[in-house]
Design brief:
Layout: E1 4-9, H1 21-34, E2 40-47, E3 62-65, H2 68-71, H3 73-91, E4 95-98, E5 112-117, H4 121-128, H5 135-151, E6 154-157, H6 160-172, E7 179-182, E8 200-204, H7 213-227, E9 232-236, E10 251-254, H8 259-267, E11 271-274, H9 283-291, E12 294-298, H10 301-307, E13 312-314, H11 319-329, H12 334-347, H13 350-365, E14 381-383
Parallel strand pairs: 1-2, 1-4, 2-3, 4-5, 5-6, 6-7, 8-9, 8-11, 9-10, 11-12, 12-13
Antiparallel strand pairs: 7-14
Length: about 375
């Protein structure tokens, strides 16, 4: 049989319960573009009924509904540990691709296993926020990561930072590690120029402690008191327990928004503010720049790698740094935003991402490797000892 054959598992993901919209969007977009690559001969997508309207698969790609994976927590565990390998065996393809990166603990994969690890968050929480999740859940994700390292043929990551994290954690397991490959994340190029902007600052909020919504509230309230900003400040997401917005007339909270609604709000905003102390990539600042909103974001290792000097970065432990970056962002001319968007899209686009995936799947499947794709050179992927 010529060409690659692939089973791609989305069954355990849905919008209503996901802990990471970024991983959900990455998973959906990756199969959207991967399924259209001419090197992919056959593909089966394991999904659920909540994803049918969000997937745009070409003819010939088989969609298999596996709703049991999202009906309950027990159903999710049974799917993770038993169901996904059973479905992969039934599909009969060369590869099983798990875009969330956690392999079943109790069985071996019936195909070559490709996983996409977005970050080392389970280790970060173990070290910094051990009480934020239950012991059982923490054990479950750590065990899943260990299975990923031991059983994957290849681990794809979304940044060089995450590749080094995976290599470090794999070494801690004292286990032979598979090939670790940085593929990045792609973004769609805007089809129209950004339109008129409302006088609005958009701020992302989250219940998860690493997102530092507590710091964002404190800094932004202090900044408004000194800067006298009278435009709208919209917080998108959920606030951590015990926190609430101050009673400011121009501030409001929007809970989790549908993707299209969030995009419309972003496109009409002047600035996006993004706090975090740990990420595997950090998609929102890139998305903001592409939408014509100036990103103001935490200066952490991965955002330095991803943003490459675009946008307005600030140091988390310095209000003065934040205030200066936000003030600068409100004055950035449209031409500068356009130049940043072009630079970011040239670096982070789906053609490059899919080219890297196809190259390594083909090479490891033993088929003709073909031409090495742009970006698949030394420094962009790490190959562990095997």
């Amino acid at each position: 049989m010529k060409g690659l054959t692939l089973t791609y598992s989305l069954s355990d993901q849905n919008f209503a319960t996901t802990k990471s919209l970024g991983i959900l969007n990455l998973s959906l977009n990756l199969i959207h573009h991967l399924s259209r690559h001419p090197a992919l001969h056959q593909a089966t997508v394991l999904g659920n009924s909540t994803l049918r309207d969000r997937l745009d698969l070409p003819p010939g790609v088989r969609f298999v509904n596996q709703d049991q994976a999202v009906r309950s927590r027990l159903g999710r565990v049974l799917w993770d540990q038993l169901g996904v390998y059973r479905a992969a065996r039934a599909a009969g393809h060369q590869w099983l691709f798990l875009p969330k990166g956690f392999a079943p603990v109790i069985r071996r994969c019936p195909a070559k296993l490709a996983t996409c690890v977005a970050d080392g968050m389970q280790d970060f929480y173990r070290r910094n926020y051990p009480r934020a999740i239950s012991r059982l859940e923490r054990w479950y994700f750590l065990a899943g990561f260990a299975a990923t390292v031991r059983r994957s043929t290849v681990i794809f990551t979304i940044s060089d930072f995450t590749s080094t994290e995976v290599a470090r954690l794999a070494k801690d397991l004292s286990s032979p590690t598979p090939r670790i490959v940085t593929i990045g994340i792609g973004f769609a190029k805007p089809t129209t120029a950004p339109g008129e902007k409302d006088d609005r600052i958009l701020v992302l909020a989250s219940r998860w402690p690493h997102k530092r919504t507590d710091l964002a509230l404190r800094y932004l309230e202090r900044w408004q008191a000194t800067a006298g900003f009278s435009g709208e400040v919209v917080w998108v997401g959920a606030l951590p327990a015990g926190l609430r917005l101050p009673a400011l007339a121009n501030w409001r909270l929007a809970d989790r928004l549908a993707e299209a609604e969030y995009r419309r709000l972003l496109e009409r905003s002047r600035v996006l503010i993004y706090f975090s102390e740990y990420e595997g990539f950090g998609m929102p600042p890139v998305e903001a720049a592409l939408a014509g909103a100036c990103p103001v974001y935490s200066d952490i290792p991965v955002t330095r790698e991803v943003m490459r000097g675009t946008g307005c970065a600030f140091i988390n432990d310095s209000f003065e740094s934040f205030a200066q970056s936000l003030g600068n962002a409100l004055k950035v001319p449209r031409g500068q935003l356009k130049a940043w968007a072009d630079r970011l899209h040239d670096r982070h686009n789906w053609d490059r991402v899919v080219g890297r995936v196809i190259f390594h799947l083909t090479e490891l499947a033993g088929a003709s490797a073909g031409r090495r794709p742009e970006g698949a050179s030394a420094g962009l992927y790490l190959v562990g000892e095997r």
